[in-house]
Amino acid sequence: MKITEDMQTLGVESLVTIAEQFTFSDRVTGVQAFGSGNINDTFLVTLDSATEKHFVLQRINTQVFRQPELVMRNMRTLTEHVRDRLQRTPANRRWEVPRVLLTKNTQDIWQDSCGYYWRAISFIENSQSFDTLQDSSLAAEIGYALGMFHNLISDLPPEKLADTLEGFHITPLYLQQYNEVLAKTQPQPSPEINYGWKFVSDRLNFVSILEDAKATGKLPLRLMHGDPKINNVMFDTATHKAVSVIDLDTVKPGLVHYDIGDCLRSGCNPAGEETEHWTGVYFDTDLCQGILQGYLSVAQAFLTENDYLYIYDAIRLITFELGLRFFTDYLAGNIYFKVKHPEHNLARALVQFKLTESIESQETKIRQIIQDLRIINK
Ligand code: GN1
Ligand code: MG
What we know:
By secondary structure, this protein is α+β, with helices and mostly antiparallel strands. It has helices spanning 5-8, 15-20, 68-88, 139-153, 171-184, 191-201, 209-215, 256-267, 285-299, 305-309, 311-332, 344-361, 363-377; strands at residues 27-33, 41-48, 54-60, 100-101, 110-111, 117-122, 127-128, 222-224, 233-236, 242-245, 252-254.
């Protein structure tokens, strides 16, 4: 097992000891850092087992998720609902839902001696994820996966899940935080900071577009995933068909538009959100067409006329919002998102701002794609 310096500071107990809290007779043979999450610490545990060979072990970031018990309760309510539904009406293709694994004392969370919270989730075997889409072959599958996810929870009343992350995806609140940080810090002017500052101040009049639609009842409160970026969609390694949507930390009441926007801003950026070449970032409308086609093939069953009207705005807004969140975190001294170097969040912000610009410059085309798909799906 490779233990990095970072992992040694995780707690007093070894990662194996922590993993063993969630096993019964199986022996833990390995624990490796896993994935590229910006908030929690994630590990893949390997077991000496004839049945389940892996599971995902995570240390929950309680600076972000202040009530980890509620996060786990939401996750259990949602996954049990979906499993129940799939049992009653089986999907006509492989589709899996991650399971929350319990400790020996049947708890869904374990606290180590430093007070850190750990949890374990089943691993979707024989599956993989992608950080970027290079061509449109997988795009429809990404959209299908989000549609399937929304469809499977569309009959679970939103009030069944708690609000575990207040203000999440409420863009006007992110703007407020940005203004507060700006008032407190005196960032050294640089071309990048000036670009970011101007970028935000040129777009103040649209930050509340989705919240206004929610407040006036144009868009209904629904359950959402909260973070359906494309590497949270798992693909069968052999067939390359989508088989699951993972990372259920942020499932809670919200707007499906946050998810649609998030999925498209991540899926239609071939350079990926971690690229260092931000000036070349663009929004690929072929990928957009593919993802939306896959999404609407499932989601047309529950979308309303108004829902369609706000899809373009959602793509633009959630991309802008993530840029604003990264930019604010950079100005605040990198307190929310994990970073590899001090300028990391600034680089990430510029990528999202450039992507927003590309979305804006292709507004007519994107709206046309939505309109055409709506007619086909009618
Ligand atoms: C964070 O940790 P991760 O990578 O699953 C963030 C999302 C962002 C994403 C950008 C709770 O998700 O909102 O879209 O980074 N999650 C939270 O990569 O803030
Ligand atoms: Mg996440």
